Amino acid sequence: MKEYNPKEIEPKWQKKWSRDKLYLTQDEVKGKDNEYVLVEFAYPSGNLHVGHWYAFSVPDIYARLRRMQGKNLLYPMGFDAFGLPAENAAIKNKLNPREWTFQNIDYMRNQLQSMGASFDWSREVVTASPDYYKWTQWLFLKFLEKGLAYQSETPVNWCPSCKTVLANEQVVAGHCERCDAEVERRNMLQWNLKITDYADRLIDDLGSLDWPHSIKEAQKNWIGRSEGAEIEFKVVGSKEYGVRVFTTRPDTILGATYLVLSPEHELVAKLLEETRNKKQETIKNPDEVEKYINETKKKSEMDRIAEGKEKTGIRLEGVTAINPANKEEIPVWIADYVLPHYGTGAIMAVPADDERDREFAEKFNLPIVEGYTPAGFEDFGQKTQKYKLRDWVVSRQRYWGCPIPVIHCNKCGIVPVPEKDLPVVLPEATDYLPSDDGQSPLAKVTDWVKVKCPKCDAEARRETDTLDTFIDSSWYFLRYADPKNEKEFASKKLLKKWLPVSFYSGGAEHTTMHLLYSRFFHKVLFDLGLVNETEPYLRRMNRSLIMGPDGQKMSKSRGNVVDPDKEVERSGADTIRIYLAFIGPYNEVNSYPWNPDATVGVRRFLERGFICLIYVLHIFCKRSFD
User: Fold this and answer.
1) In this structure, are strands 383-386 and 226-235 parallel, antiparallel, or unpaired?
2) Comparing 6-128+476-625 with 226-384, is the CATH topology the same?
3) For residue 132, what pLDDT is reported?
4) Cβ–Cβ under 8 Å, residues 299 and 174
5) Containing H/E element for 618?
6) Global pTM?
7) Cα 307–310–314 angle (5° rounding)?
8) What is the CATH number assigned to the segment(s) 226-384?
9) Cα(359)–Cα(370) distance, rounded to whole angstroms?
10) Whose CA is closest to 494, among 448, 520, 465, 530?
11) Could you tell me the residue ranges of all domains in the chain?
């Protein structure tokens, strides 16, 4: 029997599949039902490691199974091509971000094809291509027209090294996850999307989805819907000031022994101003209070509320409030574990019934009242709902992103770029370095910035911030249904043939970002009459992680990255694919260290024949994807 030689066999058949257009998807095939299987598209970082292979090759086995079971399958791939890493890499290597990105796309496309994955490459989308981001801009303008996009002063995480706004998830222990610089809190004029308007629907519609309980719970917790009441505590010695707190347990008010305000609470600022202007010495320790506030600005919100974090705070000496239930005078503190945007930015602390409040009380020797009499909801005000979710900040002060399609005119204000002028093409630039003042590098491209107002023809200027890349990925799966359409982002007729996505595989890290954002985006498009359903993905599965041979997360700095090209050269693509398929359950949030010695057994198995392989893969698919 001829020896199994992957170097000879695999390229031969991969070329034949491509030549025969074996995986070219037709929008309709007689006698077959359409099915859409999706895996999160690739970020063009430059090369793949075996973790990427795990992300793409195992769902590919499922896609092949569904074809064998008679489905007319859409299984596409593209590239999430804008973003900070590409720009930083280009700056570091003194390259053009566009050149760097598209070179990487070409290289990675070849890597993905060498994997033998059954993607339909005719439907490829690249978010950094003008024919794609034209429609990203068009959709943004639809949000603006509907009143769901707005510009306002917003507290943000600012990285002084990357010189851009960071999402909360990009801040680790007060430092930028990419460059490790200490993050600052700033108020900046930012573009936002009103995701909070959809908070209830984003929670309530989860019930219709075939998603794991853990993913649903993560989204519910992130949105943080709470039902409770607002109660006002009068500030002693002041007719003007009171503190409104939101609580889910108004019945515990008789156990409230102190108030805690967020360091950003407007009352703190007012009382400090009074003290500094010597109108009234309200706060007895203003220097210590301001020092604590400045220290808080260096922390991300996730750091502030992290489980097990030691509580910090400072008393507003000289400031007390009245508990309206028992008329007792209680102290007022500020502490960073209270966030400004959740509820009212103030809480009544009941240390007998709340673990955080108890830890705080024990640390600062504050009273704890056990065995108090419960109060009723009816005693305090009207029921209300509050949410942890905030509006989505989508401005980025970087070059390599989708330009925001608005024009600023001194006479007309914010003016949308007319549809006929889309796309607003990202201009060539020679200086990609962002500024300390928060200006995007695009602000330096003066010929591009200066423009006539579409309304009054006066001198005006373009918006120079670019859009968060999560905007690009919030609708990319829709474009796969109709990627060559020049008249609309996708034909509604073709969207009806393919959507919603039957099965979507991706990373757990995207549960409360990409998944949540794209669900929001889709609901807005449904309300606009642009899509046919309220939810984009019927079924979602988060994959596990492949770690380095040392059991640590793969990283160039650790020197534990496994290059799949070398593994393919040594053992063949099929060997790697089968090894990854059987390394452990795919639908669990687990991690598996790469074991190069274990691929030897898989290679021997392949050499024995493929009939057994087909049977085993069938069993694998039933086990992992049923």
Assistant:
1) antiparallel
2) no
3) 98
4) yes
5) helix 611-625
6) 0.88
7) 125
8) 3.90.740.10
9) 15
10) 530
11) 6-128+476-625, 133-219+392-470, 226-384
Assigned token pair, 378: 């009816």
Helix-, strand-, coil-residue percentages of the chain, each rounded to 5: 40, 20, 40
| Residue 181 DSSP code | P
For the chain, which ranges sit under pLDDT 70?
A: 1-2, 167-169, 279-281, 376-380, 556-557, 609-626
Bridge-based pairing of strands 258-261 and 503-506 is unpaired
pLDDT tens, position by position, 557-595:
678 888 888 888 888 888 888 889 888 888 777 889 988
Neighbour count for residue 204 (Cβ, 10 Å):
10
Q: Residue 406 is which amino acid?
A: V
Q: Coil, helix or strand for 75?
A: coil
Evaluated on CA atoms 209, 213, 214, 217, the torsion sign reads positive
Fold of 6-128+476-625: Rossmann fold (3.40.50)
What is d(CA 425, CA 429) in angstroms, rounded to the nearest whole number? 12
Question: Class assignment of domain 133-219+392-470?
Answer: alpha beta
Cα 83 to Cα 341: distance, rounded to the nearest angstrom: 28
Q: What is the pLDDT of residues 496-524, one digit of tens each?
A: 999 999 999 999 889 999 999 999 999 99
Please report the pLDDT score of residue 302 as a whole number.
Answer: 73
